[in-house]
Write a structure and sequence with these properties.
- The protein has about 270 residues and is mostly beta strands.
- The chain has one domain: Porin (Beta Barrel).
- It contains no helices and 13 strands.
- A twelve-stranded antiparallel β-barrel has the order 2-3-4-5-6-7-8-9-10-11-12-13.
- Strand 5 and strand 6 form a beta hairpin.
- The radius of gyration is 19 Å and the shape is globular.
- The two termini are about 35 Å apart.
Length: about 270
C-alpha cells in the first residue's frame, strides 16, 4: 500500500544527491526581479509518505522572503531543507539557511554581505557556518537579461563526522573534525528571459582556501529553467554540481543534484 500527500503545493521532485541550490528567486530575470514590490515570498514544498517495510516519509521545503529597502537595497532570507526517514531512522537530513543584503540591480558597483548556516547529515557535515561580503559589478543589464560578477571573501567554520566516509576506508580516529579558514570568493551570475513565460538563470562560484591549498578550490555551478503557469504559480527545472578538492573528511569530491517541481509566488 502506498500513499502520497501534498503540503502547501504538490511538487514532484527527483533528487539524486544533496541540496546545494543557492541561486535566489530574486536573482532571476522575471517581473519581480528588481521590482518595486516591498515584499516577495516564494514557497516550494513537498511531503510524501510510503508504506513499505516501514513508514517512509520525505519532507522538502524551500522558502524565500525578499524585503526591498528604501536605499534600493534588498534583504533576502532563504531556507532550504530535505529530510527522509523510515520509522525513527533518519536516512537523509540536509539543508541551509541564508541571509543576504545586496543592491536591487540599480548600481553598477555595489557591496553585498551574507551569512549562511548549512548542514548535511548524509555526508557527515554537522554544520558549516559562513560570513562574508563581495564587491558586485554589473556587466550587463537589459530588459530581458542581466549579468553580474562578484569578488570577495568569507570566513568558514565546518564540523564533520565520518558518517559519509566509505566503509572500505580505514578511519583511525573517528572523532568529529572542526576546520576554520578564510576563502577567496569569485562568482558570476547570468539571467535571461526567453519570453513572458520562460526564463533561465545560472550562477557559478569559485572558492579558494587562503592557505597552502589555494589551488584546491571548491567549484559550484547551477542552472535553472522556470516556466510561468500563472501569475503566482510556476514550474522549475534545476541542476547543479559541486566539485570540492579540499574536503575535511575523505568523501567524494563530486556531487550533483537534479530536481523539478512547482513554486508558489506570493
Amino acid at each position: 500500500m502506498k500513499t502520497k500527500n501534498g503540503l502547501l503545493i504538490l511538487i514532484f521532485t527527483t533528487v539524486t544527491t544533496a541540496i546545494n541550490a543557492q541561486i535566489l528567486n530574486i536573482d532571476r530575470e522575471i517581473n519581480n526581479d528588481s521590482s518595486l514590490k516591498k515584499w516577495n515570498l516564494s514557497i516550494s514544498a513537498n511531503y510524501s509518505s510510503d508504506k513499505l517495510k516501514g513508514n517512509l516519509n520525505d519532507i522538502s521545503t524551500r522558502i524565500e522572503i525578499d524585503k526591498r529597502l528604501k536605499n534600493n537595497y534588498v534583504l533576502i532570507a532563504q531556507f532550504n531543507s530535505d529530510a527522509t526517514f523510515i520509522n525513527k531512522t533518519i536516512l537523509q537530513n540536509e539543508g541551509y539557511s541564508q541571509f543576504r543584503i545586496r543592491d536591487n540591480d540599480n548600481r553598477k558597483n555595489s557591496v553585498e554581505g551574507f551569512i549562511q548556516y548549512q548542514w548535511n547529515g548524509t555526508l557527515g557535515m554537522l554544520y558549516r557556518q559562513i560570513v562574508g561580503s563581495n564587491y558586485r559589478l554589473r556587466i550587463l543589464e537589459k530588459n530581458n537579461m542581466d549579468c553580474y560578477i562578484g569578488l570577495g571573501g568569507f570566513y568558514e567554520i565546518e564540523k564533520w563526522n565520518f558518517d559519509g566516509v566509505d566503509s572500505s576506508i580505514q578511519v583511525i580516529n573517528s572523532d568529529p573534525i572542526t576546520r576554520k579558514l578564510y576563502r577567496l570568493n569569485h562568482y558570476w551570475k547570468f539571467a535571461y528571459k526567453l519570453s513572458d513565460k520562460i526564463d533561465i538563470s545560472t550562477v557559478s562560484y569559485f572558492q579558494f582556501p587562503i592557505n597552502k591549498e589555494f589551488l584546491n578550490l571548491r567549484w559550484y555551478l547551477e542552472f535553472n529553467t522556470n516556466l510561468n503557469i500563472s501569475k503566482k504559480l510556476s514550474c522549475f527545472i534545476h541542476w547543479d554540481h559541486i566539485i570540492d578538492n579540499y574536503r575535511v573528511v575523505p568523501i567524494s569530491n563530486y556531487y550533483y543534484t537534479f530536481n523539478y517541481g512547482l513554486t508558489l509566488n506570493l
